[in-house]
UniProtKB/TrEMBL annotation:
Keywords: Iron, Iron-sulfur, Metal-binding. GO terms for molecular function: iron-sulfur cluster binding; metal ion binding. It comes from the Bacteria. Residues 1-30 form the 4Fe-4S ferredoxin-type domain. This is Ferredoxin. It comes from Campylobacter aviculae.
Amino acid sequence: MALLITKDCVCCDACREECPDEAIYEYNPIYVIDADLCSECVNDFSEPACIVACPYECIIPDPDNIESIEELKLKNRRNKDL
C-alpha cells in the first residue's frame, strides 16, 4: 500500500528529500504522497525512507491504497525506468 501523510505534517521537508520515488509534494497546508508513485521504498531500503526521516511521525500506511509486495516491486522498477 502507499503511504499517507497525516494532518500533523508541518512541511519540514525531511520526508520529501529522502523519497527515492519523488512521490512527495507540497499541497497546502501539508505534504502529500502520490500513491501512483510511492513504492514504499521496496528494493531501495528495508523500510520506507520517509517514515524514517519524519521527525513528527506523521506518515502512516494508507488504507485506501493497499498493494502487494509484488505490485510495489513493479512500481519501483517502473519508477526507475522513468
